[in-house]
Each structure stands twice: as C-alpha cells, then as structure tokens.
Design a protein that fits this description.
Strand order of the largest sheet: 23-24-25-26-27-28-29-30
Structural class: alpha/beta
Distance between the termini: 93 Å
Helix content: 25-40%
CATH topology of the largest domain: TIM Barrel
Radius of gyration: 30 Å
Number of strands: 30
CATH superfamily of the largest domain: Phosphoenolpyruvate-binding domains
Shape: elongated
Strand content: 15-25%
Number of helices: 30
Length: 810
C-alpha cells in the first residue's frame, strides 16, 4: 500500500510518480552521494497519494476539470481568473485527520523532539518537474522557516494550491502536459540557516553558451530567492573541471556582485510569510560570499552529482550561518543546453548605431527591435503584443506568460542567473539585465533596438536600427588539417561561446585588452602608487583595489582570471598570449598612467613591445605580467598557454627578454613553455635565422609588417588607401619569413584581416606553406571557407601537374 509520507532515506530517482521530480532527486542524492561528502539536509516527502487523497476528500477533481475546460487556451484572456478560482477551491479544503497526523508525525520525527518549533523548508515537487525536457523551475511555491505543525499543515495546503498558479497552468499548456495527470508532492526539509549565511544556484556548465568544461556558481547573502527573482546582482564564480580533478587551482573567474539587498527570516512573523528584505551591510556587499576553498568544494560536489546522473545539472546550495556548513538543497537536470546541441550558429551584426538609452549585462548574442512596453507588474501583461520588448524592474515566475510573448527583455535589476536571464535563455530571447535605469531611460511605446551582439555589455538604442542575421551549419564546415584555423581574441567575454566554433585554438590573445577592460590601472601605478598625484585617479584606483591589501596582487589576479578563462575554454588546444603591446599614449590613458609615460612624437615606433620589458621604466610592471602567466601555467595547470613577444627589433633584444622572463619564473622549455616572437618588423624577416635561434616560433603580424614595409601609418586617414597587405613588397617579405621558418623547423603562423577578406591572399599563404592563420571571431567562418577553398585548389593543381608529367622511359 502506498504511504502518505516517505523519508528521504526511502526515496530514489525512480519514485518521480510518487514524490515528484524534486524530491526523487533529493532522495537519490541523499542515499547515494552523502557517502562522497555531499551534505543534503534531511527530510521527508508528502506523496502524490496524499495529494490525491486531499483532492478526493474535498471532492475537488471534477470542479477543477470543469474550471480548466473553460480556459481560453489561445489568447489566455481568462488565465488570471481561472488560476485564482482553482487556488481558492484548494485552499478552502480541509485535511483528513489521518493525513494531518502523518505529516505531524513526520515533522516531529525530523526534529527528534529536541525543539518544539523546529524550522523546516516546505517545497513543492510536481510529477512533471525537474525533468530533462521541462524543469518547471519556479512554477510552484515553496515556503521557508516554517515552525510548528499548524503552520506546516497550512504551508502544505498552499503548496497544493500552487499547482494552479497562473504561470504553472500556462507552462503545462506550453509543454503539452495534461493538467489532470500532473500531481504534487511536498518536500519537508531541515532548514539551513542561510539567512545568517549565504546561498545561491549553480550549473555544471556555462549557462550562456552551454560550454561543459566549467561549473558556474552564483551566490548572495541571505536566502537565494533574491537571485532567481533578479532582486540582486550576485557574486559569480567560474571553476574549471579538469583543474579541479587534477587538484590544481581551479577558480577561473570571480566577479563581485553588488548584493545590495538580502532576504532573511522575520523572526516575529509566522506562517507562510516569514521572510523580509533588508539592505545588505556594506562590509558584506563589498566582500565575496564564499572563500576559495568553499567555492572549489561546491564545484567538486557539482561534478560528483553530474557524473552520477551522467548529464548536466543545475542545483541550489546554501551555507548555514550558524554551523558554517555548506549544503546542496536541490539538484535537477539542466534543460536549456543539455537536451539539444545547436548544429548551426546564428550571428548578428548591427549595420549602424544610434543613441544609447541604457546598458546592462547581455544575455545571449542576438539583436531585436520592437516597441518598448514598460510594465510595473505582471497584471499589465495584456499590454504586451507579440514582437514587443518588455521593460520592467525585475521579473519572477509570475511574469512567464508575458515573457513568452516578448521579442526582448530589459530589466533594471538582476544578473546573468536571475529569473529573467534563465527564461530568456530557455526561450532564445535576447535580454539585457541589471541596467539600473531602464524603466526611466526608456519611454513606453517608443521603438527601440536591443543589442546583445557586442560582447558582455548589452546596449539599448533609440529607434529601429538595421541589423543582419546569418546562420552557419557548423557540422558542414570541416576544419582543414593544415594550415590551422585559429582565433584572435581580445577579451574573455564571449570565450565559451567561441570555443564551440570550429577552431584549432587561439593564435593571438591580446593581453592589453584585458588590462584595459579588466584591470583599468597602469601596472606601474600598482607598483609605485606613491607617484600618482592626481587625487581623483588615486581615489578611483583605491576603489578598484579595495579588496587587495597588496595592490600588485590586483593586477596579477585580474590577468590570471582573464587569461585563465580563455585558456580553459580552449584547453587543451594552444592559446598564444601576446605580452602587453600598448604604445605610450595608450598606456597613459590607463588610470595613473600619465605619471609613468613620456610624451612621444610617434608612439607607433616608440617605447613599445619588447623594449619596455627590460627597461627600468616598466620592468617591474612586466614582472607582474610574468607572475600572472606563471600562475596560469603552473598553479592552474593550463600548460596549453604559450607566450609571444611583440615588436622585438633585434635578436639582442630578444635575448634580453628571454633572460628577464627566466628571472621572473618563465623559463623557456620548462613545463613545455614555448615563447614565440611577432614577425612584424622588416628586421624580423631579414634576420629571421638569428631570431629562430632564440624563439620557438613566429607569428606574422601582417598589419604592422605592411605599414613598416610601405612606410604607411595605418591609423592615418590620409594614407589609408595606400595600405594593402597584398602589396607585392609585403607579400615578398611574408613569403621569405615562411620559407625561413620552415627551413629552421620553427612554427609559423599569421594574424591579420587579409585572409578573411581575400580568398586570393589565403590561397597565397596556403601555397607558401603557412602553419596557421588566425582570424577575428566575426571572420572565422569565412576564413575557414577561404582556407578550404585554397587547400582544395592547391590539391587539384598538384594532381593536375603530376598527371601532366611524362612517364619515365623504360
């Protein structure tokens, strides 16, 4: 005979029909993975038999069927009315005495009678919930910090009623579930005092791209509902699975969220409304919610759960503020990226830009244009038409019906793991979250363009802008064996998405872009802060480095994270990092930079590249760059990282740089370290044999090489028409460079725009035997096509020539 309640110790994954997806998963983990160190708060489940018993006892089945039969299933004009009546019917019911007694007995057993008002969490768990093809996340209600059997019984009744929230009714309809065949179980779980600690959510993949090599965590102080509701911008952590398994430093990135508010228990309240939102004290909002060891521990648990289920998972975690212990609260299959893997890539490009109304965090990479509908609550959803762009403060599961009509979503609050972000990904709808001022900056009824195709930052433009959407079938785009098709990357923002493209790694990672956008401070300003006299810049530097007692550690940390994310995304493919190649005027633009840079008449030919690294004016800054790279390679285990020296004028200069790098812990050949040189100065080509004795390989920088060969400033509008990488003089030097590198058995590649723009230039490189060609991300697909065409053409020509040769006489 089926029981009315079951302990977690009696539940497994095969019991979904009895206890719902959420409880079945908790029972499975509780019984099989707690021995591996994962902590799950103990509890019990009120079974679906108990739910059916309640419905039969109160004779609710037929009235509910009749009510739902009258639902407008095309326009859902009466959804709110139907949902309200359904919930009212259930809430007016009474519990059978034996069911009430069973729940009370389970509650007393869980508390061991040690505390009469033992606190528990009461969570809904539907039979169609937490499945691989439908998560039902947030569709049904949960209640926290419930104390005493009377409050518990009422909370269970509220959970039963939440099977008929407006959002749940609409979700079941959209997913094709029969309302009459979905039943509810309720999980009763020991309460983790995360109101005094912290909590959050996690994924065993990167939630934007679906990249499976990392664990993504988000966390905030207090109860984690504020993350899903988009009330706060949480801390975010990215952890690399291979480094974790190899006991290396595994945290790739740590982003400090504002966490301006925290949800805590209201100890003076009772029943199902026992939480309150309060302002987060500054000392907490400006510090991370977890220590590094805790981050890695949670990530290990996540990997254990994923390995057990053999599929990507998302989960909820909490840290008890009293005991300091971490717990997994829920775990379920991830539903956006795990069920389907895109065979094609859509890319969006704005044709022109207009006035920027607001910016925020981009979710997705699409562009959408439509009429802005500024709403203040989901009750106004009838104002949104298909194709409109929703603008609001933040969203919750109650917004789901309107989100499915919107062509774009813009919110004031929330981060990349907020409710709006999660739904946007599931729907494939572009969203911009955390703008802070969208509802003020955007006027209701105005035409706007929402762009998530420009990196991590999303832009909202006034008016309808023109954009292009193109699609490429990735499985029909083979990679050539030679030359390698690699990427040029400047920033970590789209790294995980780009890693899913066909590629042979990264041929050029520009370090200076990470310094500009992630560090923002001149390296020497962190070494010698006493030399900065500008008070405004001093304050800004202090603000950025406030969590770093040793200021130099700030730069090392930021560079390590930026490089580490990219190296991990492409691991084990090579990632060639070019050391910083700012010009003096560009360095001067960084915070504190003017105190360390001299004015030069021609910065393009001045104090840049290799000459800086051993000079007293920058040597200490270069040391910090080297320490960051050593951390990435040695501590994180990302030995796929190789280094490249730019603008190295003479072999003697190359030797000096190699020597100083060795002094700073980067010894050529040690742990497989390779050091390349950019071939971008005619002297690099003329003395290629000498440079080959010093470096492990070359990367032709065709832009600089062309400008120095032709004597043209490529930044000058006056001479721009004369700049041509296919100029015979430039091509002659490139040909010579390739020939020498091959003869000296050194690796040789090229970074430049020409191969993606010009099929004939690609053909020239392939014919000469180039080892790799690197493209910007927007040119990669076209570049691969050009390489394949050139390779096939060369092969056909070689075959034709071999057949044309006369046979040897006998």
């Amino acid at each position: 005979m089926e029981k009315l309640i079951l302990k977690f110790s009696e539940i497994g994954i095969d019991d979904i029909n009895t206890v719902g997806g959420k409880n079945a998963s908790l029972g499975e983990i509780y019984n099989n993975l707690t021995t591996k160190g994962i902590r799950i708060p103990n509890g019990f489940a009120i079974t679906t038999k108990a739910y059916k018993y309640y419905m039969e006892y109160n004779k609710l089945r037929v009235p509910l069927q009749e009510l739902l039969a009258s639902l407008d299933s095309s326009g859902f004009t009466n959804l709110t009315e139907i949902g309200s009546k359904a919930r009212k019917l259930i809430l007016q019911g009474r519990f059978p005495l034996d069911l009430e007694a069973s729940i009370t007995a389970g509650y007393n057993s869980l508390s061991n009678d040690k505390k009469r008002d033992f606190a528990v969490a009461v969570r809904s768990s539907a039979t169609a919930e937490d499945l691989s093809n439908a998560s039902f996340a947030g569709q049904h209600d949960s209640y926290l910090n419930i104390k005493g059997s009377v409050a518990l019984i009422y909370a269970v009744k509220c959970c039963f009623a939440s099977l008929y929230t407006d959002r749940a009714i609409k979700y079941r309809h959209d997913k094709g579930f029969d309302h009459n065949k979905v039943f509810l179980s309720v999980g009763i779980q020991q309460m983790v005092r995360s109101d005094l600690g912290c909590s959050g959510i996690g994924f065993t993949l990167e939630p934007e791209s679906g990249f499976r090599g990392v664990v993504h965590l988000a966390g905030t102080w207090g109860l984690g509902e504020t993350i899903v509701q988009g009330t706060v911008t949480p801390d975010e952590f990215i952890i690399f699975k291979p480094s974790l398994k190899n006991s290396r430093k595994a945290i790739l990135q740590k982003n400090l969220g504002s966490k301006s508010k925290m949800l805590v228990y209201n100890e003076n309240a009772s029943g199902t409304n026992s939480t309150t939102l309060k302002i987060t004290p500054r000392k907490y909002s400006e510090s991370f919610v977890l220590e590094d060891l805790e981050i890695e521990n949670l990530a290990r648990w996540a990997v254990i759960i994923e390995d057990y289920y053999q599929k990507p998972m998302d989960f909820e975690w909490a840290k008890d503020g009293c005991s300091g212990e971490l717990y997994i609260i829920q775990a379920r299959p991830e539903t956006v990226h795990s069920t389907t893997r895109p065979l094609s890539v859509k890319s969006y490009t704005l044709q022109n830009k207009g006035q920027v109304l607001t910016t925020g965090e981009a979710v997705g990479q699409a562009i959408s244009a439509g009429i802005a509908r500024v709403l203040h609550s989901p009750a106004e959803q009838e104002l949104v038409q298909e194709g409109d762009i929703l603008v609001t403060d933040n969203t919750s599961p109650d917004w789901d019906p309107v989100l499915k009509k919107a062509a774009g979503i813009i919110t004031n609050k929330g981060g990349r793991t907020s409710h709006a972000s999660i739904v946007a990904r599931e729907l494939g709808t572009p969203a911009i979250v955390g703008t802070s001022n969208a509802t003020q900056a955007i006027k209701n009824g105005d035409y706007i363009t929402l762009s998530c195709a420009e990196g991590k930052t999303g832009y909202v433009y006034r008016g309808k802008l023109q954009f292009i959407c193109s699609s490429t079938e990735l499985d029909t785009l083979p990679l050539p064996e030679k030359p390698k098709a690699q990427l040029i990357i400047s920033e970590p923002e789209r790294t995980f998405e780009l890693a899913l493209f066909p590629n042979d790694g990264v041929g050029l990672l520009r370090l200076e872009f990470i310094i500009t956008h992630n560090v923002k401070i001149h390296p020497m300003a962190l070494v010698h802060p006493e030399k900065i006299t500008d008070q405004k810049q001093k304050l800004e530097i202090e603000k950025l480095t406030r969590n770093y007692p040793v200021k130099k550690d700030y730069l090392i940390d930021k560079l390590t994270q930026g490089i580490g994310v990219i190296a991990a995304a492409f691991y084990p493919k090579e990632v060639i990092v070019r050391m910083s190649d700012f010009k003096t005027n560009e360095y001067a633009g960084l915070l504190g930079g003017s105190a360390f840079e001299r004015l030069e008449e021609n910065p393009m030919l001045g104090f840049r590249g290799a000459s800086r690294y051993y000079h007293e004016n920058y040597r200490e800054g270069f040391e910090l760059e080297c320490k960051a790279l050593k951390k990435v390679r040695d501590e994180m285990g990302l030995t796929n990282v190789k280094l490249m020296i730019p603008f190295c004028r003479t072999p003697e200069e190359g030797k000096k740089v190699i020597a100083i790098m060795r002094d700073y812990g980067l010894k050529q050949g040690e742990n497989g370290l390779e050091i390349y040189v950019m071939a971008e100065i005619p002297s690099n080509v003329i003395l290629a044999k000498e440079f080959a004795e010093i470096f492990d390989g070359f990367s032709i920088g065709s832009n600089d090489l062309t400008q120095l060969t032709l004597g043209i400033d490529r930044d000058s509008a006056m001479t721009a028409p004369l700049f041509d990488e296919e100029n015979p003089a430039s091509k002659k030097l490139i040909k010579k460079m390739i020939k020498t590198a091959i003869k000296k058995n050194k690796k040789i590649g090229l970074c430049g725009q020409a191969p993606s723009d010009s099929a004939s230039f690609t053909e020239f490189l392939v014919k000469e035997g180039i080892g790799s060609i690197s493209f910007n991300s927007d040119a990669l697909i076209n570049g691969i096509r050009n390489i394949n065409t050139a390779v096939n053409k060369n092969a056909a020509m070689a075959h034709k020539n071999s057949k044309a040769k006369p046979e040897n006489p006998i």
